[in-house]
Write a structure and sequence with these properties.
This protein is of the alpha+beta class.
Length: 60
């Protein structure tokens, strides 16, 4: 099974999502969105932009 996006409304009424690995572990958590459409756009952005995203290590 592939990973999945878990979409919910938090206690403050904001839409949020987690990206979960196939074993159920949360590997990314979103910011809060004021509308479901905005949260779904955030999910699409992750799908579109993350596959080839580089890893950038911060210097101390």
């Amino acid at each position: 099974m592939a990973g999945k996006f878990d979409l919910w409304i938090d206690k403050g009424g904001q839409y949020r999502f987690n990206l979960k690995a196939s074993n159920g572990q949360v590997i990314a958590t979103s910011e809060g969105y004021s509308s479901k459409a905005s949260a779904l756009n955030g999910i699409e952005s992750v799908r579109k932009n993350a596959p080839d995203a580089p890893v950038v290590e911060r210097e101390k």
